[in-house]
Amino acid sequence: MTDWSAFLAELPGIAAITHPAQLKLKSRDFFWYSPVLAEQLKGKVGDVVLTPRNEDEVRRIAAACARWKLPLTVRGGGTGNYGQCVPLEGGVILETTALDRVLAIEPGRARVQTGCKIAAVEEEARRHGQSLLMWPSTKRLATIGGFIAGGFSGIGSIRHGILKDKGNVTRIRVMTVEEHPRIIELLDADIQKVHHAFGTNGIILDLDVALAPAVEWRHVIALFDSYADALRFSVAACTPALDLFLLTTVDRRFARFYRALGEHFPDGKDAVFAMAAPESCADFAMLAARHGGRIALDLTEPELDARHLLPAYECAYNHTTLQALKVDRGWTYLQLAYPDPFDIALVERQMARLGDELYMHHEFAKAYGDYRAFALPLLKWSSRDRLYEVIRSFEAEDVLVFDPHVYTIEEGGMKEIDQAQIEFKRIADPQGLMNPGKTLGWPPRK
Ligand code: FAD
What we know:
A hairpin with a 7-residue loop joins strand 8 (169-175) and strand 9 (183-187). The model has no long low-confidence stretch (mean pLDDT 97). The chain has helices at residues 4-9, 20-25, 35-40, 55-68, 118-127, 144-150, 157-160, 227-237, 281-290, 301-306, 319-327, 344-354, 384-395, 410-414, 419-428, and strands at 15-17, 48-51, 72-75, 92-95, 102-106, 109-113, 130-132, 169-175, 183-187, 203-213, 218-224, 244-250, 270-276, 294-300, 331-333, 336-337, 358-359, 361-367, 370-375, 378-380, 400-401. The protein is globular, with a radius of gyration of 22 Å. Helix 8 (227-237) runs antiparallel to helix 12 (344-354). It has 446 residues and is an alpha+beta fold. The strands form 4 sheets. An 8-stranded antiparallel β-sheet has the order 14-11-13-12-18-19-16-21. It has 3 domains: 4-95, 2-Layer Sandwich (Uridine Diphospho-n-acetylenolpyruvylglucosamine Reductase, domain 2); 102-214, Uridine Diphospho-n-acetylenolpyruvylglucosamine Reductase, domain 3; 218-333 and 336-401, FAD-linked oxidase, cap domain/gating helix (Vanillyl-alcohol Oxidase, Chain A, domain 3, 3-Layer(aba) Sandwich), CATH 3.40.462.40. It binds flavin-adenine dinucleotide. Flavin-adenine dinucleotide binds at residues 29-30, 73-81, 84-85, 96, 114, 136-138, 142-143, 145-147, 149-154, 198-199, 203-204, 317-319, 322, 435.
C-alpha cells in the first residue's frame, strides 16, 4: 500500500488532485466509443493527478515515481480513443496541460511544449502566416504532445501525409523516469522511438513540428446520387492538381446525424466533405459535376461560424462517430485501411453485405507519398462476437483493421512489437513504470 500523503509531501508546490470525482474524470478518455473497452476499462482510476508547470516539476515527479516505484501515466487532453491514458494500474497521472508554451515560431517550424493545445499552436502559427501540417478534429482539446504520442494522421494528411512521414515532426525532447531523470533529444528518424508509443517510454517535454504557409481553406460539401459516385469522384480528386486539406466521403445515412447542416446535406444524397484551397474550388466543382455531383456549400470557417454551421473537419475522421453517438448511442466504429489499388466494387459488396448494420465513411490521405483510402465506418453494436465476425470478414478481403476495441499499441494499429521503441524504453523507463499494460513488448509488472 502506498502512503500517498508521504509521497505528496515529497512534492511540495506541485498542483495535486486527489478528489475521487476528479480522479475518475482525469482517468478517462474517449474509449467509451467502444462498448468492449467501456467494459474492460471500467473502474480503472489513478490515485493522484499532478500538473507540473515547468520542467523542474516534471523532473521531481519522474524522480519520485522512480524512487517509489509507482506507475506513471502521462495525460494530455484525454481525447485518445483506446484508453491510451487510462491508468490500468492506478498510480500517478501526470497532466501536461500547464506545459503550454509556444517556444518559437520560425519559417517552416514551430517549437512547442507538449501540453500546448493544438488549436493554440495553430492560432499562433497563423499569426505568423503559417499553419500546422495536420491535426485531429479534436484540436480544441487535444495537446500537441498527445497527438504525437497517441495519434496517427488527421485533417491535412491528404496534403502532407501521416505523422510518421519524414519531416512532419523533426525533434522531440523527452525526460526519462529514473531516480535521476535525464533529458534525451531525438532528431529526425529517431523520433519514431516515441511517436505512437502511448507514453510508455519517456515523458515528452517539447517538440518541433513542421509548418507550411497558411491557406484560408474553403469548406466544401459536394452531393452525389450514390456512394460509389462519391468515391469515384474522391479517387479522381486525389491528384496534386487539386490543393486539398481534407477529403471525406460519408454515405447518405449519416444525414440524420448532421441535421444542423440542413439542406446542405439532405436525406437521399451521399456526401463529400472537403477543405479546398480557394484556387482549387472551381476545378473541384467541375470534377464533382463530371461525376454527377453538385456543390451544396462552399464557405470559409468564419463564414460557417457566422451561420452556425459545422466546419468540414467536424464532419470527418472520428468526429463522424461522435456526431452519431450524440444522436444514438447504439453505434460503435471500425478503423480500416483499404488495399491499394482502391477497389470501389469491394466497398459496394461490403455495404450490400452489411446493410443497415454499417454506415460507410472513407478518408483519403497520403501515406509514405501515395494516396490511400482509409475508412472509419459506423457499426451497429450488438455483441463482441459479432464485432469480431465483421472485423474478420474485412480482414479476409485484405482490408487492414486498426482495431479500436483494444488498448495495447500492438493489438490496435501497429500489429507487431516495435523493438526500437522497446529498446528506447529500456533507457527511458528502465523500471517499466510508464503507462503499464499498454505495450505487449514489456513484461507485466509483478
Ligand atoms: P491524450 O489522449 O491525453 O494522450 C494520448 C496518448 O499520448 C496517451 O497514451 C498518453 O499517455 C500519451 N501522452 C500524452 N502526452 C504525452 C507526453 N507529454 N509524453 C508522453 N506521452 C504522452 N487521432 C488522430 O490521430 N487523428 C484524428 O483525426 C483523430 N480524430 C479524433 C476525433 C475524435 C472525435 C476523437 C475523440 C479522437 C480523435 N483522435 C484522432 C484521437 C485523439 O484525439 C488524438 O490522437 C489526440 O491528438 C490525442 O491528444 P491528447 O492530448 O488528447 O492525448
